[in-house]
Amino acid sequence: MTTQPSEILDDSAPETASPERLPLDAWHRSRGGRMVEFASYEMPIQYEGIMAEHAWTRTHAGLFDVSHMGQLAFSGDDVDAALETVLPGDILGLKTFRQKYSLLLDEDGGILDDLMVSRRPDDFYMVVNGAMKFEDIGWLREHLPDDITMNHMEDHSLLALQGPEAGAALAELIPETADLYFMQCNAFTFGGHDLWISRSGYTGEDGFEISVPAEAAEALADALCALPQVKPIGLGARDSLRLEAGLPLYGHDIDTKVSAIAADLGFAISKRRREQGGFIGHGRIAKELTDGVPSRRVGLSIDGRLPAREGSLIFVGDAQVGMVTSGGFAPTVGAPIAMGWVATPHCAIGTALEIEVRGKRLAAKVAPMPFVPHNYRRLKPGA
User: Fold this and answer.
1) Segment (H or E) for 171
2) Cα(57)–Cα(163) distance, integer angstroms
3) According to the CATH classification, is domain 294-367 in 3.40.570.10?
4) What backbone torsions phi and psi does residue 218 show, to the nearest 5 degrees?
5) What class is the 20-67+154-244 domain?
6) Residue-wise pLDDT tens digits, 121-166
7) Cβ atoms of 284 and 259 closer than 8 Å
8) What number is the average pLDDT over the span 217-221?
C-alpha cells in the first residue's frame, strides 16, 4: 500500500514565482530527493518512498532538513520579561539550557503561530514555522520594546535527527549530546563550527534539532548519513509521523480562528500566566477557562482503509458537528487516522461519528492522542 502526506502539499504560505532553495538543495537532489514547493522553498517530499521513510524513522533514525523554519535570537535588558508580553508561557522561569513549546496569540486570543523557545546563556533562541516566519518577525518587531534586539539567523540551517537510534547516532559524532534529555539544549562543536542542539522534534520519537551554520550543513549531513542508523527523510514522512504523534500542523489544525484552550494546547500556558495574565490574548484564555469552548481539536480513528482528508465534514446523524483538519493513512497504526475540530458535546473519547468522504459516510470515533506513544528520552522527576 502507498500513502501520501496528509496535508503537506496544501501549504498556507503565499505562492511565489520562484521558490527559494535550501542550502542543502543540491545535496537532496543528488540523493534522489523529489522536490516540491512548500513554505516558499523547494523541499524534498520523499527519497525512496514515504512508507519506507516513515518506517525507517520509527525503527532507526531519519535526517530531516527543516531549514525553511525561522530561527530567531533575542537579546537585551530584561528580554525574558519582554518575551512574556508576547508569549503565554513562563519565560521568566525558563532555566538556561532548557526549551519549551509556546504560542504567539493575537489580541483576540487566536493562534498566530506555535513555536519553540530556549534560554541560552546570553540570549533566547526561538524556532517558528517556515510559512509564518516573516509575519511572525513583523509582529514581534511591532510588539516587543525597541531595546530588544531580534536577529533572524538566515545564515543557519536547521536539521532534525529523529528516531529511536538518533541518540546513539549523534553521540558517535558529538559524544556530549548523550547527556541531553527531552527539551534540554546546549552548544556543541562539529568540524570547528558552533552548533546549537536541542533534544526535541516533531515526530513523537526521540531526537534532536540541530542549528548549524549553512556552510557546515553539508558536512554534518554527510557525516550523519554515513552512519548505518541514518537515512535522509522527506516532508511526506515528517507529516505522517507528526499526525501519528497527535501534533498539530499550523495553518491546518490550528490558526487565528481557534484558541489554545480549544486546541488542547493549554499546557503551554503556566498556572502563573493563566492567573496573572500580562500577555496578548489573555482575555480569551481566561474566559474560555471559565466558560468552556464550543468545539475542540480531537483525534479520530476511522473504520476501513479509506483516509479522510482535510476539509471532510464530520456528522452525528444528519447534523454536521465538525471538520477534519489533518488526515491520512497511518503506517504504524495500519489504518487511517485524522485530527479535526468537533463540537464539544461530541468530543468524549469513544464517541461515534461519521465522516463524509467521496460521497460516502465512513464510521469513525473520537480517539485518544497520540495515536502512537511518544518515545522521548525524558529526565526522571527529581533528577
Assistant:
1) helix 166-173
2) 5
3) no
4) -65, -40
5) alpha beta
6) 999 999 999 999 999 999 999 999 999 999 999 999 999 999 999 9
7) yes
8) 98
Each residue of 278-299: pLDDT tens digit?
Answer: 999 999 999 999 999 999 999 9
The DSSP bridge partners found for residue 38 are: 41
Q: What does pLDDT average to over the chain?
A: 95
In this structure, which amino acid lies at residue 33? G
Spatial CA neighbour of 80 closest among 49, 117, 111, 106: 117
Round to the nearest angstrom and report the end-to-end CA distance of the chain.
Answer: 45
Cis omega (within 30 of 0) for bond into 370: yes
What are the extents of the domains in the chain? 20-67+154-244, 294-367
Question: Angle at Cα 88 formed by Cα 84 and Cα 92, nearest 5°?
Answer: 40
Cell 503561530 sits on residue: 113
Residue written as grid cell 486570543: 109
Distance separating alpha carbons of residues 36 and 248, to the nearest angstrom: 21
Lookup: cell for 162: 529523529
Report pLDDT digits (tens) over 315-354: 999 999 999 999 999 999 999 999 999 999 999 999 999 9
**Where are the extended beta strands (E) located within the chain?**
20-21, 34-38, 41-46, 61-65, 70-75, 98-105, 111-119, 124-128, 149-152, 156-162, 185-190, 193-198, 207-213, 230-232, 295-302, 313-316, 319-330, 335-343, 352-357, 360-367
Residue 119's CB is within 10 A of a number of other CB atoms, namely 22
* Ordered strands of the 185-190 beta sheet: 185-190, 193-198, 207-213, 156-162, 61-65, 230-232
Q: What is the tens place of the pLDDT at every residue in 48-105?
A: 999 999 999 999 999 999 999 999 999 999 999 999 999 999 999 999 999 999 999 9
What secondary structure does DSSP assign to 179-205, as a single string?
A: G--TTBEEEEEETTEEEEEES--SSSS
- CA 178 – CA 339 distance, rounded (Å): 34
